[in-house]
Amino acid sequence: MSASEGTQGRPARPGVVDRPPRADVLLMTVGLAAVSTSGPLMAAIAAPALAVALWRNVLAVAVIAPYAVATRRHELRDMTTRERRWALTSGVLLAAHFATWVPSLRFTSVASATAIVCTQPVWVALIARATGHAIPRRTWVGMGISVLGVVLLTGVDVSLEPRALVGDLLALLGGVFAALYTVAGAEVRRTVSTTSYTTICYSTAAVVLLAACLAGGVDLWGYDGTTWLQLLALTLGAQLLGHTLFNQVLRTTSPTVVSLFLLLEVPGAALIAAASLGQVPPLAAVPAALLLLGGLGIVVSARPGDVEPAIPAE
After folding, report:
1. Which among 49, 59, 125, 243 could bridge 102 via Cys, Cβ 3.0 to 4.6 Å?
2. Nearest to 212 by CA among 102, 54, 46, 89
3. Which domain holds residue 251?
């Protein structure tokens, strides 16, 4: 489903901060609009949080799997045991990400949950350090600023409504699981196309989430037409269109620029939530969110060249 298929025959990656082509800026703008709808839509859907997570993966597989079977059948069949293991692990981690991130939106605001889950690059950097990569001093500075922003943001939520702290903590866990998912997925995508990888990953996430829903007695159907349309919009917009476009531009725009551009999802989701859900962030949360985004921008721009970029899963 993406033009960035595998690693062979790919043009040389551009420099870390090279200006992206105008066409890529347009594609990233469309992709950003798509992914920015994720949080507000999931907060608005009148279905259990785990069911929302399940159905967005099931619907995504329904779109991707036929294409994968038609075009990547041999690759899927010939994947090594190591590749399959990493793809399955990535799917389990993606399920864990959705199982924490989606419920967080029912406890705290879309703006806070989106900002906190976007700490994913911080966790990717820490995982990289733990696995032997050299992390620049600038990255540590950015991580410190980001953590301070998270502390201030959660402090604002506690002062307004203690219940929101639960949502903030779930969003933080969602960011950790998203980072682990990114790292696991990077191991597969070194040798496997995006289409084959996402087919296995999303299918695995769907199976894990289905088991969780059945164990918890979550209602999986009986929704009204509006809810099904929202689930479809969530899948086609954020999960398929948004991430397909960002994978597309990674051929000609550096991962650093793409990751920095994706940080704009935070204000984008906040604006959509304010307009559609009436969730206007308190003034005290604005400087905390700006501090968090500034720190993340430093982390992303200081990413070592041998560390996989952290592309959000939302």
Report:
1. 49
2. 54
3. 22-301
pLDDT at 159: 60
Q: Is residue 16 part of a domain?
A: no
Domain count, the chain: 1
- Identity at 76, one-letter amino acid code: L
155-187 CB burial, b ≥16 within 10 A, e <16: ebbeeeeeebbbbbbbbbbbbbbbbbbbbbbbb
pLDDT of residue 17: 47
Rounded CA-CA distance 292/144 in Å is: 9
Per-residue pLDDT, 283: 80
The amino acid at residue 77 is R
d(CA 181, CA 79): 19
Closest CA to 259 of 20, 49, 51: 20
Residues 151, 156, 160, 166, Cα dihedral to 10° = -30
Enumerate residue ranges in the chain where pLDDT < 50.
Answer: 1-13, 15-17
Residue showing tokens 């419920």: 103
